[in-house]
């Protein structure tokens, strides 16, 4: 990731991609299973559907609990905002009208396998990162950049773990 000088209000994004030597159906079963996500993430600790939901659908909500050395522990409610079985699964964190983040998995089948991408956008709604920026506004660009790099690293790890699971016999 290269320095962009982005501020939080710029809604900066990061995307990571990988090729998986497995059919999209197998990859989709993994990325759409939110219960599996804590095992593929370095920050996410647990996830559960809310309101009686048992799987993704636009409007469904889930609670995620996370932990980070610098930010502590927190819980967020996410709303599924995009769901195309076998292709796209996206959710907004906290307020869907002004999310603290948007996350998206996208699958592209081809050549006997699947390209999987994970994309995220910070903001525009407030998040735990906003507290750090409030305390050190002169360092906002650096705070955003460091967090984007962490996201990029963690997303790379997540996709690698999904790839390993999908390609396992």
Architecture blueprint of SSEs:
Layout: E1 13-20, H1 24-31, H2 37-40, E2 44-49, E3 61-68, E4 72-84, E5 88-93, E6 101-110, E7 113-122, H3 128-135, H4 140-167
Antiparallel strand pairs: 1-7, 2-3, 3-4, 4-5, 5-6, 6-7
Task: Please tag this protein with its features.
169 residues, alpha+beta, seven-stranded antiparallel beta sheet
What does this structure look like?
The chain has 169 residues and is of the alpha+beta class. The chain contains 4 helices and 7 strands. It has helices at residues 24-31, 37-40, 128-135, 140-167; strands at 13-20, 44-49, 61-68, 72-84, 88-93, 101-110, 113-122. Strands 1-7-6-5-4-3-2 form a 7-stranded antiparallel sheet. A hairpin with a 3-residue loop joins strand 3 and strand 4 (72-84). The longest helix is centred in the C-terminal third of the chain and has 28 residues, at 140-167. It is globular. The termini are far apart.
Question: Short summary of the structure?
Answer:
With 169 residues, this protein is an alpha+beta fold. 28% of the residues lie in helices and 36% in strands.
* Order of the strands making up the biggest sheet: 1-7-6-5-4-3-2
Number of DSSP helices?
4
* Tally of DSSP β-strands: 7
Average pLDDT number: 93
Q: Which residues form runs of ≥5 with pLDDT under 50? A: none
Q: What distance separates the N and C termini?
A: 33 Å
Q: Sketch the topology as an H/E string, one letter per element.
A: EHHEEEEEEHH
Shape from CA axes? globular
CA gyration radius, whole angstroms: 16 Å
- What structural category do the secondary elements indicate? alpha+beta
Strand content: 35-45%
Largest sheet at a glance? 7 strands, antiparallel
DSSP helix fraction: 25-40%
